[in-house]
Amino acid sequence: MRRQECRRRSLEHDGDELRSTGLAETGLALFNEMLVSGPRPDRVTVVGALSASGQLCKLGFGRRLHGYVLRHGLDSCDAVSNAVIDMYMKCGDPDGAFVVFGLMRNRTEVSWNTIIFGCASNGDLDLARRCFELMPDKGLFSWNTMINALAKESCFKEVISLFQAMQGLGLRPDGVTMVSICTTCGFLGTLDLAKWVYAYIGKNKVECNLRLSTALVDMFAKCGDPKSAMEIFDGMPVRDVAAWTAAIGAMAVEGDGRKALELFNRMVGQGVEPDGVVFVAVLTALSHGGLVEEGLRFFRSMKEIYGFVPQIVHYGCMVDLLGRAGMLAEALALIQAIPMEPNDVIWGSLLAASRNNRNIEMAEYAADKVLNLAPERCGIHVLLSNAYASAGKWEEVARVRLALKDKGIQKLPGSSFIEVDGVIHEFTSTCESHPQMTMIAGMIDEMNERLSSSGYVTDLADVLVNVDLDEKDTK
Description:
By secondary structure, this protein is mainly α. The chain is built from 27 helices and two strands. Helix content is 69%, strand content 3%.
């Protein structure tokens, strides 16, 4: 009996506990054993099992759990119904989630938030937004849920819009809100907005905990202000590996590989154990700084000193480092020595380096490897086309471009953001819908004229990135 009671207690944890321990599979196995030989699972146990099913995307098991919930009348508990909704959403079955949601007698704020975040996670942001608008009582947690969902799906303009609406209603944001706003500012690269956010946090006395401080460091780094990033970092009383990674990332943006190495050594000296992400940050900084020898030594030290086996992403950093230095033969030798199968990102990095160094033979070889792994990647065709253009092989340029058209592959239009007087403007390649487009085009023409008069010559390969060649153009 005592053994069964211990097992029962071990199961009576929610999904967060299962996720944090990484024992979701074990949890479900114990749940099955409990059904056979233990006491009947109660609502607390079922919530944990449902959370584990969602984490593992085991829809079949989750449906059987839902059946168990209905048979034993556990659906009257809000926490159980919310866990069922969460399970269906995480398993990619939003219809099942909405059925449960529609039958609930008491839809709590948690129920609405689970639906909203689930819709966003399944890629239906429009439905998530509609549910958010229909929600009768929106507390701070609900606003944070919607803002976080939009931020995770890279809908950064919508994040700022929602944040402004939240302020208009007089709701005071907390640290969770501001982490999403910092992430948004970092992606957009809007330094003025980043400075405003930092001032807003101080003025409104938002608790600047470890997570928010790290987000601020990362925000300023990505906005091109490493000085502000390091000032915040230096003022942090406690720093975890994520905080050190953000600071090292600031040095990567600056191209200061030596400072990145110095920060890494300080981190290790203070007893913080490095992880795979911080190794990527250091290697990226060394690559941007052109420090090949230092990069090679650091890469070897990962396994020899820190006992960390490099993953495919770390090999990718090394290929980028060697490629930037024009060491294409060494980069290819490294790829061929990778103990796991090189992915399309690795070969794409070699292709980009080959294009920059105008090595057509290597570019063709790398492009062939990428297209065998990911034939749908339009950017690879464009890179290869640009490599041919750099070498003046216009017939090959036309062949690649026509092949793109024949396969029906279209390049996704590039976009950029700029902040002017607190307003974020988005520009998409080939789109001329901006209300001030006539003035903008005139200014671009004037800039081009001034560049030409100063002796600047445009690289035709770059011009061709957004050019579509018709058959008549190749005759």
